[in-house]
UniProtKB/TrEMBL annotation, chain A:
Lineage start: Bacteria, Pseudomonadati, Pseudomonadota, Gammaproteobacteria, Oceanospirillales
Record's function text: NDH-1 shuttles electrons from NADH, via FMN and iron-sulfur (Fe-S) centers, to quinones in the respiratory chain. Couples the redox reaction to proton translocation (for every two electrons transferred, four hydrogen ions are translocated across the cytoplasmic membrane), and thus conserves the redox energy in a proton gradient.
Species annotation: Chromohalobacter sarecensis
Transmembrane segments: 6-26, 38-57, 63-82, 102-121, 141-165
EC numbers: 7.1.1.-
Record localization: Cell membrane
Name of the protein described by the UniProt record: NADH-quinone oxidoreductase subunit J
Recorded topology in the membrane: Multi-pass membrane protein
Reaction(s) this enzyme catalyzes, per UniProt: a quinone + NADH + 5 H(+)(in) = a quinol + NAD(+) + 4 H(+)(out)
UniProt keyword annotation of Flavoprotein present: no
TrEMBL record, chain B:
Keyword Ligase among record annotations: no
Keyword terms, alphabetized: Membrane, NAD, Transmembrane, Transmembrane helix
Name of this chain's protein: Complex I subunit 1 family protein
Membrane topology: Multi-pass membrane protein
Pfam families: NADHdh
Organism superkingdom: Bacteria
Positions of transmembrane segments: 6-27, 75-97, 134-156, 176-196, 228-247, 253-271, 283-304
Family: Belongs to the complex I subunit 1 family.
Signal peptide: none
Compartment(s): Cell membrane; Membrane
Keyword Transmembrane: yes
Primary location recorded for the protein, binned into one broad class: membrane
Amino acid sequence: MESMNHGIGVDIAFLLLATLAVVTAWRVFRTDSMVRASFFLLVSFIAVGVIMILLAAEYLGVAMFFMMAVEMTVMALFMVMFMMNPAGLNPMNMVHQERISIGAGVVSFLVLSAMALLAVFPDRPVSAGLDPVRSLGNEMLGDSMLIFESAGLVLLTTMIGVVVLSSHRGRYGAATEGSLPPGLEPGGDPAGKPEDDEDGGHHHHHH
Amino acid sequence: MNLEELVLPVLMVFFMLAAGAYTVAVLDRVIAGALGTPQAGSVWIAPLARGAWLMTQHANATEAPDWRAWRLAPALYLSLAAIGLAVVPWSGSLVATDLATSVVLWGSVEALATVVIFLHGWSANTLFALIGGYRYVALGLSYILISMFVLIGVALPAESLQFTQVVASQGELWNLIRQPLGLPLFLIVGLGMTFWGPLNLADSADLAGGTAAEISGPPRLVWDVARAAMLVAFSGVATSAFLGGWLGPWLPGPLWVVIKMLAVLLVLLLLGRLLPRLAPERCVTLMWVVLLPLSFIDLVWAGVGALL
C-alpha cells in the first residue's frame, strides 16, 4: 500500500462510520415500527454518505444526505398510510420469509466477500488537479444526459402510476364506495357507526 | 494545523449558535415591545432568565414515548442549525467549512430538518404532537423544493456549488437585484422551516403547541434555542446567497456579514410579529400553486441571465 497519504483520523472515522452503518442497518430489521425502521435506514445511509465524502466523492456523499432524508420520510409516511399500523408506534414484526432471506443474505455476503478479497482492483491514480464535482457534472449532463433524464422520467412515471393504481384500495374498502370501518365480528356491522333510524328525524325540530 | 482546521471552526460555530440564539430572543422582545406587547423585565436579561428557569424545570414525560428519538430530536435540530452556520462564509478565507458542495449541504440540512421535526412530533406518542409532525411533513416537502430551485438559481451565475464562490460571483451585482424573486422566496422558506410567525403550523397554538406540546424543562430550552439558531442560519445563508456576503465598502468583510444578517433577522422577526398565522390547508395551496411556480420563474430567470 504505497498510496496511504491520508492521516490516521480518516481511518478511525471510516471504522466508526462503517460500524454505525452496519449496526443501524441491522436495527432496521430488529425494531418493531415502520417509522423507526425507516429512520434507522436513514442513519445507515448517512454514515455511508460520510464514507463517500472520505473517498473524495464530495457531491455524491452530500447528495446521499438530502436524497435519503426526503426518500425515507416519504417511505415512512407511505408505509403508515398504506399499511395496517396508522401511527407507526404500535409494535409489529418487521421480518417475513425468513428462510429465503437468510439464504439470500448468506449468498450475497459470500459473493461480496469473495469479490473484495479476490478481485483485482484497477490502480489508476487521478491527477491532483481533478475536480470531482465538475467532472461528475460533465459526465451526468454531458454525453449521458439523455440516459439519465429518461431513466429519471421513467422512474417518476412509475411512482405516480403505482400510487394512482393502488391508492383507491383503502384500508376499509375501495375509496369510490366510501370507507367504512370493519365490523367487530366477522361480517358484522361497521364498528362505531350506529344504525340510522327508519325516519332519521330524531334531531330535526319541526316548527 | 489542528488548531486552525479543527478547533477554530468549532469554536466559531459554537459562538454563532449562542450569540445568534440570544440575538434572536432579544430582537424579538424589542420588536414585540415596540409593537405594543408589554414585555416583563429587561429585554437583555429576560431571555437568559427564561433559559436558566427552563434548566431548573422538570422534563415532562408522556406515556410510552420513543425516548431516544424524543430526547435526540431537539439536539439534532440544533446540530442541523450548527451545520448551516458552518457553511456561512465570513470572508473569502474565514469560513468554518469551505466544502466544494456547501450549497448542496445546506439543501441536506433543510431535508434532514423535515425528518427531525417529524420525529420530534411522532416520538412523543401524543395526539397534538403527532398532528404537528405530520403537518410539517406535508408542508416541508414544498419548502424544500422552493428552496432548492432558488438556490440552484444562485449557483448558476457562480458556476459553483460553493458559498464562497456564490458570494464572489456577486461582485458586480448582488443576487438580490439580479434575481429579485430569490430572497423573498428564500425568506418565506426560512419562516416555514423554523415554523416562525405566520408559518408556525407545526408548533402552533391551534395544536396546543404541536410537536412541542409535551416538552418542558431542558429539552424545551434546546428546542427553542435550536429554532432561533436555525433562523440565524437562514439569515446567514440568505446573506451569502443574495446579499453579497462579505462584499461591501469601507468596513471589514465579517462586519458586513453581521450587519446584513441582522437586517435579514430584523425583517424575519418583524414579519413574524406582524402577519397572522395561515391556515395549513391554505398554506399548502399557496406553496404549490403560487410560490413553487414563482420559484420556477426565478430559476428560468437565473438561467437566461447566466446565458446572456
